[in-house]
UniProtKB/TrEMBL annotation, chain A:
Protein name as catalogued: Cytochrome c oxidase subunit 4B
One Pfam family from the record: COX4_pro
InterPro entries per record: Cyt_c_oxidase_su4_bacillaceae, Cyt_c_oxidase_su4_prok
Domain of life of the native organism: Bacteria
Compartment annotation: Cell membrane
Membrane topology listed for this record: Multi-pass membrane protein
Coiled coil spans: none
Residue ranges crossing the lipid bilayer per the database entry: 23-44, 50-71, 83-104
NCBIfam families reported in the protein's UniProt record: CoxD_Bacillus
Keywords: Cell membrane, Membrane, Transmembrane, Transmembrane helix
From TrEMBL, chain B:
Membrane topology classification: Multi-pass membrane protein
Protein family (similarity comment): Belongs to the heme-copper respiratory oxidase family.
Subcellular compartments: Cell membrane; Membrane
Gene3D superfamilies, A to Z: 1.10.287.70, Cytochrome c oxidase-like, subunit I domain
Protein's recorded name: Cytochrome c oxidase subunit 1
Originating organism: Pontibacillus salipaludis
Pathway annotation: Energy metabolism; oxidative phosphorylation
Length: 105, 619
């Protein structure tokens, strides 16, 4: 891009980077809020049956943010890594599910 | 480092070349030789087992030795023979089939081999140091955690080291196939062998960590006083079974899928037809790989998982018969109406189809959870898995070696001796294992040292032993074939089989940089397209230019040697803590060589355009 002195394309990338920065800031703020909410629920001593699932849910959303907005999985050309990531998650979940349901339960 | 000169090298130089090589074709030969030696060792163990069971109440080997023999036969054949032979075929063929100059990480390729090799040697050292592992190849806890002596410790350390090598190899092939395909080689134009190598590598990536975790837990239980598998201390020995089979079931697909791909290529080549239902074949391979992760508990139906879990796993298991059936029918339809040449590879392939299908039938029978209570741990199971592994993987390795021998060594195995080796092996195989189905149904349990006379088991076992000897004769004829071929040393052309895929567009053996110019791929079976529509040669996708090659390296050998030494330290520190020094020393060698690798820049070298024009490296 450094070689490209074309002003239209420069403007285009500038705009794009700006937008990306915006998303990163928003997700960063959201992640901090999620963490505060999690801590808050524990400090407020809500029923653990409510707190634990909510914290796990928030954690999953945070992982998604991390992958898509900070590690650029939303960009083009990341389809295959995403596929492998999800396959790995699937196999790991299956393993844990089997252990929980038929070994330890 | 110039290999441009084609002079004859001395033995020492050749040895050093192989110890340090990062060339995928030489690593394939290393895998072939090491895997072949372990295959012979495993075969010898099998012969001893069959001699012991030839007659009732035999005392040929002692009970303890028998346990070691069955354990080492299974472990050796799966991890040290079948896996490396598959890797030999993948190494020789995959980069050539996708038009690449090497794998993505040549250094890691070499490291993967040496880790496997030293792990295998470590495992077999146990024969000479007071007894091999004796808890079965599955090493179920608590038998394995309480087995006296160091046999099972060798099992744990040996498999841990060689498993790391396999994992590295799998990741390497994934990256190679994703990133290094020649221009025009889209996913749906890849030869089926490359496709199956890809899916197999995915399975390796996801399945081997389960084994690694299982072996770590076992290691801590046996050597460092942990209690993961001890119910009295709050552990649970069923966890080992789960971890082992979460790895173990995908493992059998890891073994057989590349063979499926190989047979697809062979059938298509020797029927002079495009593979019937290419996209269905690809779909079936991916589906088998996917389903392969959801069926592991069918090895544990009698463990007491409960009827719901048993039913789920039974149905999932039967579902695998569907994609496998798709493949069987597609192979038959490819041959249908084709102009078939019954060469040796094709002979093994045609023999594979009914043999493997029989194994599949046994598998569906075993999948019926309720009926499995009858079959479990009998010779029926032994017959089933030998039908799929010998009838699938071993037939496939023989077919693949005959098929790609020109790419390995530039010579052709004798067709006459090849067919002569086939018949005793094929007949012996069915003689050995078909009757074991009935022995199993009659109630003969597996892994027992001896059986009593006059229980209708005598004749069946004798027949089985005779079959085993026929298989040994077949294997020996194959070895003679190898020796005769290499002594004769008649070089062949680059395309002796009238092939369809890219590996046949370059000389046999290929120059060390494979492709002088990266080929342009115009469709499935690229070379065949050029033969029909072009001038029979691949069109280059790039102008002739300098080729960047990696330097040879001795570091992978040293790195693996360090872990090998550390293995002994960890095994014997149970008796005497001073052995920890050996363990630490070994780890220091490994970490030291990793450090050297990290800080030393190794940028490789270039073969210059002018040298290429003069024919460098084409010998």
């Amino acid at each position: 891009m450094a070689k490209n002195t074309n002003s239209t394309s420069y403007e285009f990338y500038k705009q794009k980077n700006k937008e990306e920065m915006k998303y990163q800031l928003i997700t960063f703020a959201l992640m901090i809020i999620f963490t505060l909410v999690s801590f808050g629920m524990v400090i407020a001593e809500y029923n653990p049956m409510f707190t634990i699932p909510v914290i796990i849910l928030l954690a999953c959303v945070q992982v998604g943010f991390q992958l898509y907005y900070f590690m650029h999985m939303s960009h083009k050309g990341h389809g295959l890594p995403a596929l492998f990531l999800y396959s790995g998650v699937f196999v790991a979940l299956l393993t844990v599910l089997a252990m929980v349901t038929i070994v330890w339960w | 480092m110039s290999t441009a000169t084609a002079q004859k090298k001395g033995f020492g130089a050749t040895l050093w070349d192989y110890l340090t090589t990062v060339d995928h074709k030489k690593i394939a030969i290393l895998y072939l030789v090491a895997g072949g030696i372990f295959f012979l060792a495993g075969g010898l163990e099998a012969m001893l087992i069959r001699i012991q069971l030839a007659v009732p109440d035999n005392d040929f080997v002692s009970a303890g030795l028998y346990n070691q023999l069955i354990t080492m036969h299974g472990t050796t054949m799966i991890f040290l023979a079948a896996m490396p032979l598959i890797f030999a075929l993948m190494n020789i063929a995959v980069p050539l089939q996708i038009g690449a100059r090497d794998v993505a990480f040549p250094f890691l390729n070499s490291l993967g081999f040496w880790l496997f090799f030293f792990g295998g040697v470590l495992l077999n050292v146990s024969w000479f140091t007071g007894g091999a592992p004796d808890a079965g190849w599955t090493a179920y806890a608590p038998l394995s955690t309480t087995s006296p002596g160091h046999g099972v410790d060798y099992y744990v350390m040996g498999l841990q080291i060689s498993g790391a090598g396999t994992l590295i190899g799998g990741i390497n092939f994934l990256v190679t196939i994703v990133n290094m395909r020649a221009p025009g080689m889209t996913y749906m134009r890849m030869p089926l062998f490359t496709w199956t190598a890809f899916v197999t590598s995915v399975l390796i990536l996801f399945a081997f960590p389960a084994l690694t975790v299982g072996l770590f837990l076992m290691m801590f239980d046996r050597m460092f006083g942990a209690n993961f598998f001890d119910p009295q201390m709050g552990g649970n020995h069923v966890i080992w079974e789960h971890l082992f089979w979460i790895f173990g079931h995908p493992e059998v697909y890891i073994l057989v899928l590349p063979i499926f791909g190989l047979f697809s290529d062979i059938i298509s080549t020797f029927s002079k037809k495009r593979l019937f239902g290419y996209s269905a074949m690809v779909f079936a391979v991916v589906l088998i790989g996917f389903l392969g992760f959801m069926v592991w508990a069918h090895h544990m139906f009698t463990t007491g998982l409960g009827p719901v879990a048993n039913s789920i796993f039974a149905i999932a298991t039967m579902a695998i018969a569907v994609p496998t059936g798709i493949k069987i029918f597609n192979w038959i339809f490819t041959m249908w109406g084709g102009s078939i040449r019954m060469t040796t590879p094709m002979l093994w392939t045609v023999a594979f189809i009914p043999s493997f299908t029989l194994g599949g039938f046994g598998g569906v029978m075993l999948a019926a959870a309720a009926a499995d209570y009858q079959y479990h741990d009998t010779y029926f199971v032994v017959a089933h898995f030998h039908y799929v592994i010998v009838g699938g993987v071993v037939f496939g390795v023989f077919a693949g070696l005959h098929y790609w021998w020109p790419k390995f060594f530039g010579t052709m195995l004798s067709e006459k001796l090849g067919k002569l080796a086939f018949w005793p092996f094929f007949i012996g195989f069915h003689l050995t294992f078909f009757i074991q189905h009935f022995l199993g149904l009659m109630g003969m349990p597996r892994r027992y040292w001896k059986f009593l006379p006059n229980q209708d088991l005598d004749l069946g076992n004798l027949v089985s032993t005779i079959g085993a000897f026929l298989m040994a004769i077949g294997a020996v004829i194959f070895l003679i074939n190898v020796i005769v071929t290499s002594v004769k040393g008649e070089k062949v052309s680059g395309d002796p089989w009238d092939g369809r895929t890219l590996e046949w567009s370059i000389p046999s053996p290929p120059p060390f940089y494979n492709f002088t110019q990266t080929p342009l791929v115009r469709g499935l079976d690229p070379l065949w397209i050029e033969k029909r529509q072009g001038n029979g040669k691949m069109t280059p996708a790039e102008p002739l230019g300098d080729i960047h090659m990696p330097n040879n390296s001795f570091i992978p050998f040293v790195m693996s040697l360090g872990l090998f030494i550390a293995g002994f330290g960890f095994i014997y520190q149970v008796d005497d803590k001073n052995w920890l020094i050996v363990g630490i020393a070994g780890m220091l060698i490994t970490l030291g060589s990793m450090f050297v690798r990290s800080v030393k820049d190794d940028l490789g070298y270039h073969i210059h355009k002018e040298d290429l024009e003069k024919g460098a490296g084409s010998e």
